[in-house]
Structure formats: structure tokens, C-alpha cells
Amino acid sequence: MSAEAPRHVAIDLGASGGRVACGAVTEGVLDFEIVHRFPNRPVRLGRHLYWDVLRLWQEIRDGLRKIARGGAVASLGVTTWGVDYALLDADRVPLGMVHCYRDERTAGAYDLIAPRLPREAIYAATGIQFLPINTLPQLVAARRDAPRLFDHAAHLLMLPDLLNFWLTGRIVAEHTNASTTQLYDPVRRGWAEALIAAAGFDPAMFPELVEPGTVLGPLLPEIAADTGLQGAVVVAPATHDTASAVAAIPAADDLPWSYVSSGTWCLTGIEVTAPVLTAAAREANVTNEQGVRGTTRLLRNTSGLFLLQESMRGWGDPPIEALLAAAEKVATDTVIDAEDPLFLQPGMDMPARIARWCAAHGRRAPDSEAATTRVILNSLGEAIARTLRMVDRVADRRSRTVHVVGGGSRMALLNQAIADAVGLEVVAGPVEATTSGNLLLQAEALGVIHAGDARAVMRRSAALARYAPRAEA
Question: What is its EC number (predicted)?
């Protein structure tokens, strides 16, 4: 990394872990180092699941201190998963804890607002896939459980917006994460105020929206002093982790391409110039989320490596390399429905749930850790293929290649399963796509690279692997 190149810091929180990285673009190539990694798992308290946000905040500050020892930093940016939020009162003090999207409280939440907001109206206003994890059913459930809470709520902040507030003192929302809420209008590119009011919430709770790449301002003096990062500014990249990952996909425009952001969730879709809000899109339950420069990410959330992560917890966290090597030797034609609600909740009994699903559906249950791993990866490949065909059909186009990014892109067995199921070449990499996109969007915001050059930089920077579909698959 050149000493002269401005250094940028990426703070990336995922649903299973976080990282703080430092990088720079030198002679058109991105180079970065992950300086600090830390786990992230929801915490159960009573009947509910919460995120330990204050511990994450401490981990972030620890990472920033490490980076400050290496010299000056020009900027930093935050990405997180979508849908989860914090409420603040008029004095900007948090109200309660941050629920995890996997909390069971949202069961039946859509039914509570159906008389005044039928599904057709919600989809027409937001274009978002109906999932119990969405912010809209979370808010409905929160009001049902604690109706007086909203008498005191003055600000709703998505997780990256909360962290940006703690870093800068500025309350804003960034488009890409806001668009995951099912409370955002993708056509007007603003909060869906009529829907918010019809759902019984105050539109004034929802902050000013800013574009990806907006410079939010300098670090608060106390944060700069605590971390040692004097002179750094905070940039809102695409603060939704998948949006930053898609911004870093090393695709060229000569072939229609699709993507799989492969992590705890698999988000499978395409990039389009405008939202698709047709009846076919609603029936297919596809989602319209914002991308960079006004693009739309037309996609579906499907279950991802969460099934394997929870299974490995139940097995005592064996080494992943040995597990994948053993799984590659397993021959099985068992495929489960990875999107079945049976697999939504965390728990070390995931292998038992998989066996139970197989018994209920007349499938041969896997009889070892390796076989369970192979079944999970094959099933994810099939789920991704179904989703891709559905999204292409809704958009009236045909993908010619599939880019797989994120942690799952390092799993050859999963990449091959996707190639075989989809029948298209899979291009795997970069692994740290969210971090790459975060850093590159900061570099664009500061004029280090030209706006729109992120993908060209990634084509020069990323180590890519290619997987052709096997004829016998």
C-alpha cells in the first residue's frame, strides 16, 4: 500500500461477524488489510433476540485505534445488514435495545395491518419482498407489545445510520439501507409517507435521506481523540452491505449478468435501471432495493450459509476446510427446501431440523456431518437457481453469467453447485466484496477515483475463479 495514497477505513458489520479494514487505491488497484475481526451473534433475553450493539461499538473503536497506529486516515464508512433499527427519543437517547430480525415477535404482524394496508397496496408503494424480518412488521410487532413506546420515539435509525450518528452527531438515513425497510418508495426515492401514516406511525420519525457517497462530516471530537483518527471524515457509502458488495462486482457490461451475495443470507438478483412493481413481481415476491447512482437491485432473499453456520455450532465448530473436503466426497441427491420457515430461527439443532424435514418429505436424511454439509450446499445451489430464473422472468431478460461474491464465494463446492443448478458460468470473487465496495465508494466520494470506476478497479484488483456447469449435473 503506497504511503502517499489516501487511506480509507471500512467498518462492515454482518449478521455473523464484523470487521474493520484499511485500504487505498494505488495506480488503479485496490489493496486493503482487515485489521480487526470480531464475532456477532444475537443474544437471547427472555423470549426475545437482541443485538449487542454496544459491544459492536466497542469492537469498532478498538479496530479504529489499531488503524490509527499506522498513520493518517482520510475517511471511514459503515455498512451493515438491513431491516434492523433503533429508536431514539427527542433528546437523541436510545429507547430500548435493538431487536434481531430473527426474533419471533413478528409472527402475524402483517395480519394486524391488513384491513387498512393489504399486501397489494404495500407492494405497490414499496416493491419489497414480504418477509417477517422486514422493518415494517417489526415496527407493527413493537407497537403491539409496547404501545406507549412510540409516544417517545422521535427518530428511527437503521443500524448504519445509528453508528454514523455516534461517529458524527448527524442524523440522516442513506438510501440503500432505507430501501430494505418496506417503508420506502423506490419510484420517488423517498420515504413512503402515506404508507407509514396508514400503518399508524409518524413519518416525522424518519430522517433526511442522503445518497451513497455523501460526506457526512468529520468525526466528533471525542471520537477522534479516543481513536486517534484526527482529520478523518465519515462517508456514507452504500450502507447496506449487499449494495456495497454489488457496487464492487467485477462485471463488464458486454453480457447480461446476475449476482449472488453469498453469506449468512444469499441475495440473488440483477441490477436494473428502474424498479419493477408489476403484478408478476409481486406474485414472485421479488424485492426492489436501491443501488448506487439510482440503480435498483431486483432480487430475492434466500436462505444462505446460516444453515451451515448453525449446524457447525451444533457440531462444535469443526474446521471448515476439513468439513468441505469431506463433503466433496459425499454422493447424495437429497435436496431440502432451504427457504422453509423451519430453518429460520437460530439453534444448534439445525442438523436435527434438516433430518426432520427430510423425514416429513420422504427424502433420505443425511447421516453424517459431511453429508449434511453437502445437502445444505446443494440445496442452496437449487434455491439460487430457482430465484435467478424467477428474477430474470420478472425482468424479461436472460442472465448469461453469474457473479458470486462474499464469504460463500470461497467455497468451491457451493460455486459448482450454483453453476450446475443454474447452467451458467459462475465467476467467484471477491470474497470481501462489501469491504471492497465500501472502500471504493469512499474513494469515489473523495475524488481518488472517478465516479463509476469501482467495478473497473475491481477487475484489476480481485482474484477470480471460474466454474463451468458440468454436463452431467
Answer: 2.7.1.5
